[in-house]
Amino acid sequence: MDEKCPRCEGRLLPIVYGYPAPSLFDRASAGEVRLGGCVVSSDSPQWSCADCGTEFRDEAGGLTAVGADESD
Ligand SMILES: [Zn+2]
What we know:
Helices cover 11% and strands 32% of the residues. It contains one helix and five strands; from the N terminus they run βαββββ.
């Protein structure tokens, strides 16, 4: 998947839920993934922008921002 952030066209990182394997910590440190923690709900985002930090869900119509800060 090579989706780009709809807001800033930054790189989207997959958000990984659950208890991460040690190798996943390395990937998170390297900025390749985001760790979402152990609790995942139906409206949890799947992608996080590496540049602006906005999180997105995959939905039928495309990527939808989750918990977006609309102040800008
Ligand atoms: Zn962005």
